[in-house]
Amino acid sequence: MSYGIRKDFYHSKVWNQVRKNIWLKQNLLCNRCGLPVYVDGLSDYLPKEKRRIGIVHHKIYLDNENVYDDNIALNEDNLEGICLTCHNQEHFRTNGTRNNYMFDDGGNLICK
Ligand SMILES: [Zn+2]
Ligand SMILES: [Zn+2]
């Protein structure tokens, strides 16, 4: 099963750091619709009802091989911080499977 490997990737310190960098660069705003997103530890000021889930999306989708390629998996040029709504649109437009989702330690929905 490759699932465990990917899970390790999303739980890694380096991914967490890269993910936070993306959100800080984007000022915690969705790159597509421009609405503020909630990122654990970064946007606690947001009132609960305004907390949209923020997801760092891989423009080149991750798979079992390129997850090991830092130029894809950790390259900020391949990453885009977007809200759950926009993320759904992205993935349902291409392949409407929910298998692309999982939760990280902070309970955030993230993209495989
Ligand atoms: Zn959005
Ligand atoms: Zn995605």
Fold blueprint:
Blueprint: H1 3-11, H2 13-25, E1 37-38, E2 52-58, H3 70-73, E3 79-83, H4 84-94, E4 101-103, E5 109-111
The structure holds zinc ion (2 copies).
Residues 57-58, 87, 90-91, 111 line the site of one zinc ion (ZN).
- Give the overall pLDDT as a whole number: 83
The number of helical elements comes to 4
Strands of the largest sheet, in order across it? 1-2-3
Tell me what portion of residues adopts beta-strand conformation: 15-25%
Which shape, going by the Cα principal axes?
globular
Q: Describe the largest sheet.
A: 3 strands, mixed
In the predicted model, the low-confidence regions spanning at least 5 consecutive residues are none
Number of strands: 5
Distance from N terminus to C terminus (CA atoms, Å) equals: 14 Å
Small molecules held by this entry: zinc ion
Q: Helix-strand pattern, N to C?
A: HHEEHEHEE
Q: Mind explaining what this structure looks like?
A:
By secondary structure, the chain is of the alpha+beta class. Helices cover about 35% and strands about 20% of the residues. The protein is built from four helices and five strands, in the order H-H-E-E-H-E-H-E-E. The protein has helices at about 5-10, 15-25, 70-75, 85-95; strands spanning about 35-40, 50-60, 80-85, 100-105, 110. The strands form two sheets. The protein has a three-stranded mixed β-sheet with strand order 1-2-3. The chain has a two-stranded antiparallel sheet with strand order 4-5. A hairpin with a 5-residue loop joins strand 4 and strand 5 (about 110). It is globular, with a radius of gyration of 13 Å. The relative contact order is 0.20. The model has no long low-confidence stretch (mean pLDDT about 85).
